[in-house]
Each structure stands twice: as C-alpha cells, then as structure tokens.
Amino acid sequence: MKVRPVHAAIWAAIALVVPACFAQCEQNGPDTTFGRDSTGSYNPSQGADVASWVRIPRVVGPGTAAEDDGDGGLINATAMEGNGVLDKDAFVKLSGFLQLTPQFFYASSNNGTVPSVRALINFTLNGKPIGTHPFLLFTSLSESVQTSTVSFSECVKVKAEYLRFGGKLVGGRNCVIPGTTTSAKGPTDTTCPGINEIDARITMQIGPTIGGLTTSVYQPMLNLSSWVLNTISVSGSVSQITFRAMSPVIMVHGIRSNSKWFSPYTLSPKGVNAYDGNLAAGHGAWFNQPFDDARVP
Questions:
Q1: Is residue 67 within 8 Å of 282, Cβ to Cβ?
Q2: Any idea what the Cα angle at residue 198 is, between residues 195 and 200, rounded to 5°?
Q3: 270 or 209, which is more confident?
Q4: What are phi and psi of 107, to 5 degrees?
Q5: What is the DSSP annotation of 28-66?
C-alpha cells in the first residue's frame, strides 16, 4: 500500500485501530461477521428460487447519505479500499443440500424415470454473481438405497464493494428495506442496517444415468413436474458474511479546548490554510481534513 505524505497522520492512527487480519469465513467478532437474518420481513427482488438475507448494521467510512447509493452500497468503495478503510475482499459462507426420499424413488419408477437427480445452484449477492462456478449436487436411489442427502458448505471470496453496509441514522440514507417502504431499522439498532440479499437459482436434471452422470437437459426447478417437486428437497442459502474494515478513530482534546482544535484549527501557528491552502474547496482544516478526505470513520 502506498502512503501519501499528506496522510501521514492517518497511517499512524491506523496502526492502532485496524483489527487483526480475519481468517476468511471464521467468526471474528460481532462488528465484522454477520449471520443470516430470519427475523425480518423481506421479499426476493431478483426472482430467485431461494433467497436469504444478511443485515449489516456496521458503518464503514463516514456513513453519510453522500457516501451511500441509497441502498447501503458504498459509492466510494474503491477510494476507501485504497486508503485502508475497507479491505477489497469479503467472504460469504454458502451452503446447500439435495435430498431424495422413498416417495421420489417410487414416483420416478412409476413415471418411467431412473431415480437420479443433479442440481446446479448459482448464487448472486445483491444482484452480482458470486462464486467461480455453479455448485453441483448429484445423487441417486435404488431398491437398496431409497433415501439420500448430499450437501455442501463453502467459503466464497467476493468483492467488498458488493456489500451493503450500515449508515448513520442522522444524516444517513432513507432507512428502508431496498425496494420497499418498510423500515430497515430494528428495535435495538443504533444505525440503519444494510440489507444484503443472497439469491440461489436452481436448475435440475432428472435421470436417466449413464456412467453415473445424467444426460437429460437442465431445467429451472419450477418447470419440473409436480411429482418431482413434491418428493425432493433442494436449497441454497448463506449463513454468514465476513469483512475487514477500519475501526473508528477517536480524537481527544484537552480540557481547555474544544472541537475547533481539530476543525478548523484556527489556533494553528501556520493558520487555517496549513493543509493545502484551498479554502474554496473546503480544505481549510489543519488536522482532521486528511482523515475526511480519506473517508476515515
């Protein structure tokens, strides 16, 4: 990471406030790892077969409306990543399962189909594709094996700019669930949480099998016959999202001073123009302006 001289004060502070490096999808504390939310009232916005949501109340950067795309996304994510405020990588823990039952075995036999199924699951995060490949689940039944369940759980690296973060309640965005007029704020929230939608789109093949692989055409799950849908279970969802972001910088002044010591620093021997002399652009503050420019919280 290149450090610009004008931001030297920031990087000295960063050494004190940035949390230790997170180990991908492992649990790393309440303000940087967030689990699936099952308490809110949400509606899928992307036409998914299965949708799940993760609420992130954590504010990253200033948390103001000017930094927000209206839904919790950061419009200056690239700048924040370059200044060390937000790591460019986040991690999403995805899981899924496919279960065949004895009812599927007998129904498929009665319908002249070999009782085998392949399911492909594609995930999106807030409308952006994630994962390097579709997740494949395959299983089959026989007279001797009439129940079968296969599953996966995988940590997937995503771009942190895909995430929706929390915002300030005062001076922040309109605090509603994206696409609705319903408030996103919970009874104990002190910020406006970002509502992250993870969608799973599922396509399936139903027998026959050749060399253990099905050869029929993949079809959207809801296009399958009712006897299939009534005798199998398949799902894809998220269990948690983890990211790394800078902790807030706390500035403390003496008992005979006030906030003007930081901005604008009118008592500076060098005057209020000491930062870059560009008062017209709002760059008069001597001490805290570099923090503001870097979007440090």
A1: no
A2: 155
A3: 209
A4: -65, -40
A5: --TTTEEEBP-SS----SS--SEEEEEEE--B-TT--GG
